[in-house]
Structure prediction request, 435 residues.
Amino acid sequence: MGNYYQPEIETMPLEELQKLQSERLVEQVKHVYDNVPYYRQKMEEKGVKPGDIRGIEDLHKLPFITKDDLRDQYPYGLVAVPLSDCVRIQSTSGTTGRRVVAFYTQEDLDVWEDCCARAIMAAGGTKDDVCHVSYGYGLFTGGPGLNGGSHRVGCLTLPMSSGNTERQIQFMTDLGSTILCCTPSYAAYLGEAINERGLKDQIKLKAGIFGAEAWTEEMRQEIQKSLGIKAYDIYGLTEISGPGVSFECEEQSGMHINEDHFIAEIIDPETGEVLPEGEKGELVFTCITKKAFPLMRYRTRDICVLTREKCSCGRTHVRMRKPMGRSDDMLIVKGVNVFPSQIETVLLNNNYPPQYQIIVDRVGHFDTIEVHVEMAPEMVNDTSVTIEQRTKTLVAALKSMLGILVDVVLEEPKTITRSEGKAVRIIDKRNLYKG
Ligand code: DLL
Prediction:
């Protein structure tokens, strides 16, 4: 059982923290070099030996790891301990073709749950709370992470998982849930549903811990009002452990990164050059305590800014702003990671021309995704298949690739606007990254 309540670590003076990071980094580089042939090869290609890494000042010498490396080494290539020492896997919310599988030893799970416990405590959680976890359970890290963190704090934990809004509201009112953990879009929906039923005065919620997707300050205000709570942001990604890589404190002004476990850098996504504090760039993480799946300099593709400005909560760990976009074209729709290239693959496999547009929007609190695609001229001439049948086939193929329902609109040949430069394939009307 880990020790989640570590104010001395969360408020450690910067110099001491960096010393701790350096010690852990040196050990971790050795662990990775000795146990993962792929890393060893990558380091050797760059001419770096473990002895060259003497502290965090040498971090920049290490090679980056990207999602492509993960795919390349799927499933076991980056595991740094014997499989018999692994006790769990989790996976990203994207489905077929793009799966990323992460491995955990028992110690890794303890650390991850400690990180989530810190997030719950930063939101005011104590053992007297009833923590209602409505993130999905299973391969997705949201449910298991917050569930474990809630246990560590000693909260009465409700492993609700997502969906079934009636049951969510019933448990919330009957059992007096005080902390809600779910995606911000589901929180907004629950708020609306509770108010529509006139049940707001029967809920006892005081705080919410919301993440896994981008959300704006406006959305925070709306959720806080409709549920009568304080809404805290939480960030994380499966590759690095899951939720709890960083979390907001009572200041609600950026998320403190658990720096005793993860070293954060901001790089220029084009050149890979490390940028100074305060500059906007791609967020990169190095895991310094994980044993089974210890990614080094992992490029998250999330665009972000870090700040070491003093925080009134007393925590000294660096804060990241809400992510401001992505350096790749990944979309998070209905809580699921979607790459336009997956959609393109389905269209081409079904003999459609590569002329398409993806329109993502939010209606009420629900994401919608529409794919407009041109039919090939021969499809129009072939009257043996109706447009309805074609649409149905494509919807099914996209569902099987992405795991979510996509609306398909078939267009006449040569009707989608051609672009003179880069094609505008994605129109995301949600404006999620302005916050
Ligand atoms: O979404 C882990 C998680 C679960 C975080 C529950 C918070 C709460 P993945 O499915 O691997 O893991 O997706 C990771 O989601 O790279 C970001 O682009 C995005 N993301 C996660 N949290 C936030 C947030 C989980 N608070 C990807 N704000 C990341 C904006 C977020 N984007």
